[in-house]
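Hi R.,

Here are the chain sequences for the assembly we discussed:
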Amino acid sequence: MNDTDLTFFLRPRSVMVVGASTRPETLGGKIFSNLLQSGFTGGIYPVNPKAPEVQGIQAYPSVSEVPGPVDLAVLVVPRDAVLSATAACGELGVRAVVVISAGFSETGEEGAELERLLVETADRYGIRLLGPNCMGVFNTDPGISVDTTFNPVPVIPGGVGLVSQSGALGCAILGLAAGIDLGFSSFISIGNAADVGVADALRFWETDPCTRVVTCYIESITDVAAFADTASRLAREKPVIAVKSARSDDGIRAASSHTGALATDERAIDALFRQSSVLRAASIQEMCGWAAAFQSCPLPEGNGVAIITNAGGPAILAVDACSDRGLTLPVLSHEVQEELRSYLPPEAAVANPVDMIASATADDYRRTMEIVARDPGVHMVLILNVTPPIGSGSLDVLAAISRSTVADEMPLVSSFLAVDSFYPQVTTVEGAPPVYRFPEPAVSALAALARYSRNRSFRDEPFDGLDTRRDDAATELARIVESDTVGADGLLPHGTASEIVSAYGIPLPVQEIVTDPDSAAAAAGRIGGMVALKALLPDLMHKADVGGVVTRLHEREVREAAIAIEGSVTAAGHSPDGFLVQEMVEGGVELIVSVRRDRVFGTMLMVGLGGYFTEALQDVQFSRLPVGPAGVERMLRSLRGWPILEGSARGEGVDIPALVDLLGRVMVLAEDHPLLEEVELNPVICLPEPKGCRVVDIVMRTSSPIEGDIDA
Amino acid sequence: MNDTDLTFFLRPRSVMVVGASTRPETLGGKIFSNLLQSGFTGGIYPVNPKAPEVQGIQAYPSVSEVPGPVDLAVLVVPRDAVLSATAACGELGVRAVVVISAGFSETGEEGAELERLLVETADRYGIRLLGPNCMGVFNTDPGISVDTTFNPVPVIPGGVGLVSQSGALGCAILGLAAGIDLGFSSFISIGNAADVGVADALRFWETDPCTRVVTCYIESITDVAAFADTASRLAREKPVIAVKSARSDDGIRAASSHTGALATDERAIDALFRQSSVLRAASIQEMCGWAAAFQSCPLPEGNGVAIITNAGGPAILAVDACSDRGLTLPVLSHEVQEELRSYLPPEAAVANPVDMIASATADDYRRTMEIVARDPGVHMVLILNVTPPIGSGSLDVLAAISRSTVADEMPLVSSFLAVDSFYPQVTTVEGAPPVYRFPEPAVSALAALARYSRNRSFRDEPFDGLDTRRDDAATELARIVESDTVGADGLLPHGTASEIVSAYGIPLPVQEIVTDPDSAAAAAGRIGGMVALKALLPDLMHKADVGGVVTRLHEREVREAAIAIEGSVTAAGHSPDGFLVQEMVEGGVELIVSVRRDRVFGTMLMVGLGGYFTEALQDVQFSRLPVGPAGVERMLRSLRGWPILEGSARGEGVDIPALVDLLGRVMVLAEDHPLLEEVELNPVICLPEPKGCRVVDIVMRTSSPIEGDIDA
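And here is the predicted structure of the full complex:
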C-alpha cells in the first residue's frame, strides 16, 4: 500500500509534532526536545493549540495552519483525537504519520475497531502509518540526524539498525547498547504494526548505506511471505539478528493428525529464520553481543578459534562454550608453538588455548595474537584476560591488542574478567575489539559470525527435472482431488491417495486393494513373500489404534487375519471399506513426511523420525515451500536422528538421495494441487542406499469436504 | 587424613605469612596487607629474611624463629622453597598450610612429583594443606575476620560460601558479586587440591552458622564418594550451587559396549549432582544470580509465579522463560482481579501477568504485589519495571517494593530495565529484593528456588524386600562368575548370564539353549508360538551386526533359519557356540538397562530408550548406586521418552512398577558380585501394565578375563 519504502519516516525533509509540549516531562515535550537536539536541519513544526511557541520554536494552533510542506507527522495526542489529526495530516499532504498514542488494538475490541478506522483514514490519503502505540523512529545518518522518539538514553551513532515490536524493550536495547559501545544507524519502533511492519524496516535497510547490521525484537510475524522474501535478500548482504519472543504463547492449533499437533508456530518460526538466514538470538543480551561483533569484525573463513589467556579457568569455560557451539580449537602448528615458546615462560601452554600464565604483559598479548593469527588453522581469535594482582593492568592489555592489525584480517573478540570500574573505560580505547565480561558470550558472538559466514555461502537451487517425470495421471488426478468422494473430515480414499502419490513417482510397496478376506489371501499370493494387511477406514487417520493393521503375514495367514481385523475394527465402531494388502517392507528406518497448509506460514514441509518416537521426542524439521535439494538435506542434517539416517550410528543408514528425491516430489504434488490441505506419508520406510524408500501409509486431506458427509 | 575439618584454615588463632613482603604490589605484600586490613585479632607473624618489619609488623627472618604457636601458615615463597618451608612449619607445630606458590602438578610431571613430595611432607607433620597454586582463604565471620588471599576486590560480608578450583574465576566471582550485593561468609580457593578438596569445604559449611548458601566452581571431582556424601547431607540444610566446567575436555573412555561409550563423565556428573541435590548452574553469572535469590528469599511452596509489570515486552520474555523452566502462571482469582481493577486503569491487564501499563506509580507496584500475593495460586512474585519516560523513577519503585512484607512470605525478585546509572544505586535501597537487569535471569533464579524446594522434599528409601527373593542359586553363581570360562574380553557365556539374571528374579522370555539346527526346531516346538533365534557368540556384544539374529519365526522355519544364521556368522569370521531359541516378545517398548563400574564414579546404573535410537538420540539417564525406587522413577521421568513409557504419547505405555522392580534387582545383582564389571540388558522389552518386562538379550562381563584367552 502507499509508498513502498520508509523514506518519509527516516529521511523526512520536514517534521511536524502534533501535541508538542512545552513541558519536557511529558511525552510530547520529550519527543519535541529529542527532535530539537537531534540536529535535524529540515523544517520543524510544533502543533499546540495553547502555546505560541514550544521550546523556543514557533508553534501552530492546529495542523491545518502549518504552512510548509510536511513529510512526517508525529501524533502525541489523546487517542480519540488521532483519527481527526490523521485526516488533517492527509489534507495537508503529509506522507508519513507516526502515532505514538496508545489505546488501540492492544486494549481490546473497541481499540481494534478504532485502529481499523485509523488505517482506513491513512489509506484514503495515501499516508503510511507507523504505530499506533509506538516509540517513533530515529536516523543517526549525519546527513539526516532526525529523532522523533521519546528515548531517554543518548544514542551512539553507528552501523546497527533496530526494529522493535516493544517500545520498552527497544529502549532497553538502546540502554544496554550504550554501555557496550554499540552504535545505531536507525531505530524503527513499530508498536501495533497496523501498517508498517518488520518487513518494511528490513526493506529500508537493504538500501540504507549507514546500516551494516540489522537487529530485530519480534513478538509476532503477520506477513510471513514479505518477511521471508525481504529477510532472505537482506541477509545475503547484511547480518540480520532477531529475538523472537512470545514463544510459549503460541497455541498448538487443532488438527486431526499428529503432524498438525507438531506444527507449532515456534518450529515454523525456526524454519522461517533458518531459510531466511536470520540469526536467532536467545535473548536481548545475546543479540546485542552478536551485533557488537558484527559491527567490528570481518567474517571468519572457518570455525577455528585460537584462545589466548593469562589464566586457566576462563579458558576452560571458553573451550566448553566453543564445543557447545560447534567451534573448533585447532592445535597450533609446530612452528607457531616453537615461536611462542621462545619468549613465554616454561609453565605456559602453547598448543591452544595459549595460557601465558599470570605474568603475561600487554606486549605478550599483542605479540602472541599476531603469531597465532598466522597459523592457517586459526580463523578467529579470542582474548581472555583476568586482571592479575600484579603486573600489567587490563586496560593496558586492551590498548595493546587494539593496536594490532589482526582484527582487520579475522574476528577478534575479548573477555575481560576485571573490576566493575574497568568496563566503562573500554569505550575510551580506540579501535578496541568487542569486550565481553565473561568468556561464554564472547564465544557465542564468534559462533554467530561463523554461522553467518556459512549461511552466506549456502546455496539452494530448485529441484531439477522432478516435474517432467509426472505423467498425465497427475493432471487427471487433480480432478479426483477436487471431485472424489471424501470422508467426513476431507480424507481421500486410500486408493485415490496411492494413485496420486504414485503418479508423482513417489515409491509405494507392491500393494492391492481388495474387498473381502478371500480376495485378500489371493492378493497376498500374487504379491508373494510376507505381507501387511490393513483395514481401509476412510474416516480414521490412525487405523492401527483400532486393531486395523497386522504385519508380517504369510499368504496362508491372510484370510484369517482379515476376518480378525474386520472383527476388531467393527467392535471399535468403524466399518472397513475393504483391505489393503501390501508387500512387507523389512528393515530400514521409519520416517514421517508431510506437507500441510498453514494460514500464517503458507505451505510447510515436515520430515522427522517416525514411529511413536515422533511424538515423544518430536525430532522433526519444518521448511516453508519452496525448498531445494540442498535445503532439504540441511533439514535432514538438523534432525537429532541424523546419525541414524547417515549410518554413523549403528545400522546401515538410509538412501539419502532417494529420500531427498521423495521430499522434492511431495512438494511438487502439493504445489500442483492447492486443494490438498495435507499430505502425510507415515511411515516412510527408508532402506539403505540404493534401495530407496517406500511409503507404507498415506493420509491425504482436502480443504473442501463434501457437505453431505459433514452433515452425516 | 590429619584433621577432619578446616577449622585451622578458617578459624585460626594465629597466622604466619612466609614471604610477607614490604612491597604491596607483590603477592606476598598484597596477602599480608589483606590480612592486616581484614580485622583479624589473633597473632600475625610475617616471615621475611631481609626486613625487620613488614607493613608495620615485626617480622621474623625464618619460620623457626617465630615465637608463638601458629595455627595457619601461608606460603608465598619460590616453588623450590615450599618443601623446606612446609617442614619448618611442621617443626613449629603449624596445623594448616596454604601454599600460594605455583609450579606444581599444573605444569607437568616434574611439578607433579614435587607436589607428591609436598603432600608427603605435610602428612609427616599432620599438617593439612590447601593448594598449591591457590588464592588462599577468607572468613568474614565478625568473630574471626581473617583474609589470607590476594583478592583485589573489597568483599561484602554475607551468607554465601564459595569454593573455587580456579583462583582467577574465584576473583571474577567475587568481583561480579560485589556489583550485585552478594555477600560472602567464606572463600576457599583449593587450587591443585593436593589435599583439601571441594568435599572438605562442603563439610566445613555444614556446621558454619554464617554460611546459608554454598557456591562452587569445579573443574574436576576426584573423590566422588566423599563429594556425594557431604553434598547430599549439606544440601538438605543449605542450597548448594555448582558450576562444573571442563565439560568438553572429558574424554570418552574406551569400552567394548556402547553403554560404555555413553557413560561420559558429564552424564555421570549430572547424575551425581541430581542425586546429591546440587543445583548445577550453566555459568558463573547464573550461579551468582541464583545465590542472590537464595541469600534473600524464603523457599516457595509451589511453582506458581505472578508477574507484575509496567510494560508488555519484558512480561512476554518472562512468560517464555517461565515456560522454559517449568514455572507456571496461575490465572489470578476473580476476587484478586476485581480488586486490581478497582484502582488500575482500564487498559491494564489483571489476569497474570498484571500489566499496570506505563503510568504505574511506585505505590501501584507495592499495592498490586500485596494483593496478588494473597492469591493462593501464587508462590512467587516477579516484579518487572521499565523506566518510563515520565512518571515515577525506578528507584522509587524499588524502594516501594522493598518496604513490603511480601518478601518475608514468598520469593520476590525483580528485573529493572533501566539506565546504567540505576544499578549501582540498588545497594543503597534497604531491604531491596534481588535486582536483575533482564527478566530471564530473574526467572532462572525463581526456578532454582522452586527446584531446591522440591529437592528438599524428595525422599528416596532403599529398595525393600528385593534381596529376600534371591535364592541360593545366586550364591552358587557367584562362584561361576569368578571361575567360569569367559571370553577373551571377559564376556560370560549367555547361558550363565541368563541363569544369574534369572536367579535374581529378573524376567526372561521362555528360552532354550541348543547346539544345532534340528534341536533348535525341536525347542521352538516346545516353546510354542513364534520364536526368535540367535547365534551364541561369546566374544561378540552385538550379534545382530553379523546376521546372528532372526526374529518372528514359525516353528517350521527355525531349522532353515538356523542353517542360514550359521552361514552368515561363519562368513563374518565367528563360530557360534550354539543357538538361543526364545519366545517372541511382541509389542512393548525397547529399553536398555545397564550397570557398570566406573573408576571415578563407582557403580553406575543406566536406563534409556533402546534400539538404534539409543545411540543417535542418547536418551539415557545415569545414577550412582545406591538408588531407591523413588530415585529410579525420577530417572525414568527425566528421559525425553518418558511420555512413551507413561503412555501419554500414542501407545499404551509400559509396566512402570515392573520396570522399577527390574532396575532394583539389577542393582542387587551388581552389589552381590563385585567381579562383574558390567551387566547390560539390551533390549529389555517393556510391556503394558501388568504384563511386566522381558530381558531379551544380556551381556555380562567380568573384570578378570582368563589370561589364556587374552593370549589366544
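The longest strand of chain B covers residues 676-686. Chain B touches chain A through 79 residues (CB under 8 Å).

Let me know if anything looks off.

Best,
T.
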